[in-house]
């Protein structure tokens, strides 16, 4: 008789948990996974995937306007939110099915219910069933944070934004980070009046200042309003529908929808972590070492619940490294969290890798910055007065590239390839030695003066 029911029990079937479970099973482990909501987790069900589909949908608004300068006439164009919403939700269900199939084809047992650690190696499911496992992986992700304010229960978060029955005429979005800027772009392109409310005076902290400023200027030109250095006093329902929204130092205003996008809280409550002896950090995140091991030897944690870098590819890499290291026939290895490229799918999008100009100056002293500030060819013909910006930050005499930052149509697509070069430690001279592909926006990368 085996000592435990499973070699591995994973709590949470999101990006990190699914990858770890599938790979551990492929290494020969007997694996079970519990999911209390839907297989796929935040990324597939209510994050990256449906968000990107809405971004695509939203962008047609500009394309349908710009296409006229390219000779196209489109009569009677109209937009049907319910059609887009339902098509997106259908595709989410399809992908959920693909994730479930992957787990099942690897003989991973799926429990479609909540799980909690109730003993050193014991897990109890919501149905009351108890199982044991030699190793436990916590991959429970994070949930939207809600600020403290009167009437906070009247607001929605990104979770609900994908299910709206109608688009708001006016939406107030709290936050100045990824989600706030992405949804500001989405709602604005669909014709909603958007007001972004940020507690501080900076959008997208962590991104390069000139790129952030460019997004702010373009967003204002597109009609998005911003209120900085303020928080909510109250949100009160109005008899005629919608809400009265009062911000500190501002007059009360009306809105049809309030959306909170003020960060995410690791899902660590009600998991039995205290009793199990798993240590948490200041923000409730699970503390782990470089191998994703918690303070308890046989309990590991990956992804957003550890609050290292809250991105899907990072959760996936952490899950893969954990499974290979614990169940594979190889030397344990850890995930390199340096130089991770990222993107904000705003309108237009931002993408970045490595140090910003400010960071590089602080850390490295003298740096050289190359910059290309240009109006993409398509925007020129379309009469769209929107400029793009690409910055390259270089270090030392050999001008090793330590950061690239851009705001441009398709910036995330360009960045994925550029990030390989930065990660590999290439220099400005290596870029200069590469022949341009003309005419593209990406050729700016190898033509910078
Ligand atoms: C709106 C939005 C857009 C995003 N866009 C991007 C993007 O474009 N690119 C990008 O890289 N990242 C994006 N992210 C971040 C990305 O979704 C997360 O970093 C990623 O999903 C984290 O994966 P995870 O495995 O740690 O957790 P999750 O994917 O959140 O999975 C955790 C799972 O655990 C389940 N769970 C929790 N507690 C229990 C329990 N006790 N028992 C059973 N199950 C439980 C949850 O239901 C959930 O399904 C976005 C996030 C949001 C919210
Ligand atoms: N494209 C992507 O890769 C992508 C997209 C969406 C989300 N994500 C991930 O999800 C995480 C969460 O996203 P997010 O946008 O919720 O958080 P975030 O950390 O990016 O931004 C939070 C913002 O809210 C502001 N804020 C905090 N409290 C506030 C308050 N009370 N009132 C007004 N503003 C307030 C902060 O100043 C900050 O600008 C991100 O950190 C990111 O890792 C990634």
Automatic annotation (TrEMBL):
Its EC number is 1.8.1.7. The lineage of its organism: Bacteria, Pseudomonadati, Pseudomonadota, Alphaproteobacteria, Sphingomonadales. Residues 7-319 form the FAD/NAD(P)-binding domain. Signal peptide: none annotated. It comes from Parerythrobacter jejuensis. GO terms for biological process: cell redox homeostasis; cellular response to oxidative stress; glutathione metabolic process. Disulfide bonds join 43-48. InterPro entries: FAD/NAD-bd_sf, FAD/NAD-binding_dom, FAD/NAD-linked_Rdtase_dimer_sf, GSHR/TRXR-like, Pyr_nuc-diS_OxRdtase, Pyr_nucl-diS_OxRdtase_dimer, Pyr_OxRdtase_I_AS. NAD(+) binds at residues 175-182, 263. The keyword Disulfide bond applies. Its cofactor is FAD. It is an enzyme of class 1 (oxidoreductase). Residues 340-447 form the Pyridine nucleotide-disulphide oxidoreductase dimerisation domain. One of its GO terms (molecular function) is glutathione-disulfide reductase (NADPH) activity. This is Glutathione-disulfide reductase. The gene is gorA. One of its GO terms (cellular component) is cytosol.
């Amino acid at each position: 008789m085996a000592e435990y029911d499973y070699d591995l029990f994973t709590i949470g079937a999101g990006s990190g948990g699914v990858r770890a479970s599938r790979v551990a099973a492929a290494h020969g482990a007997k694996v079970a996974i519990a999911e209390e909501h839907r297989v796929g987790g935040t990324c597939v069900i209510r994050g990256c995937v449906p968000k990107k589909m809405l971004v695509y949908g939203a962008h047609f608004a500009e394309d349908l306007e710009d296409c006229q300068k390219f000779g196209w006439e489109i009569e009677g164009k109209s937009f049907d939110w319910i059609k887009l919403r339902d098509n997106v939700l259908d595709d989410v269900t399809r992908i959920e099915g693909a994730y479930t199939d992957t787990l099942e084809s690897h003989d991973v047992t799926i429990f479609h219910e909540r799980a909690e650690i109730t003993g050193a190696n014991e897990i109890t499911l919501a149905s009351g069933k108890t199982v044991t496992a030699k190793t436990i992986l916590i991959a429970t992700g994070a949930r939207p944070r809600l600020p403290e304010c009167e009437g906070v229960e009247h607001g929605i978060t990104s979770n609900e934004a994908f299910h709206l029955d109608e688009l708001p005429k006016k939406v107030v979005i709290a936050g100045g980070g990824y989600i706030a800027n992405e949804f500001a772009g989405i709602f604005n392109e669909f014709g909603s009046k958007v007001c972004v409310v940020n507690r501080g005076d900076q959008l997208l902290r962590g991104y390069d200042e000139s790129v952030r400023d460019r997004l702010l200027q373009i967003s204002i030109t597109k009609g998005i309003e911003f209120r900085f250095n303020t928080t909510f006093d109250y949100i009160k329902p109005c008899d005629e529908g919608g809400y009265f929204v009062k911000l500190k130092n501002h007059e009360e205003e009306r809105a049809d929808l309030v959306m909170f996008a003020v960060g995410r809280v690791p899902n660590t409550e009600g998991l039995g972590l205290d009793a199990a002896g798993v240590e948490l950090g200041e923000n409730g995140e699970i503390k782990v070492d470089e191998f994703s091991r918690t303070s308890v030897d046989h309990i590991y944690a990956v992804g957003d619940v550890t609050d290292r870098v809250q991105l899907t590819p990072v959760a996936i890499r952490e899950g893969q490294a954990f499974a290979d290291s614990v169940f594979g026939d190889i030397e344990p290895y850890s995930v390199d969290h340096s130089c991770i490229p990222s993107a904000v799918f705003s309108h237009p999008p931002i993408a970045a890798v490595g140090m910003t100009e400010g960071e590089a100056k602080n850390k490295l002293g003298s740096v050289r910055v190359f910059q290309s500030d240009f109006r993409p060819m398509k925007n020129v013909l379309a009469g769209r007065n929107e400029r793009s910006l690409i910055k390259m930050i270089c270090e030392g005499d050999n001008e090793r590239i330590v950061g690239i930052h851009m705001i441009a149509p398709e910036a995330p697509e360009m960045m994925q390839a550029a990030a390989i070069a930065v990660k590999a430690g290439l220099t400005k001279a290596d870029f200069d030695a590469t022949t341009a592909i003309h005419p593209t926006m990406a050729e700016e990368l190898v033509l910078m003066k």
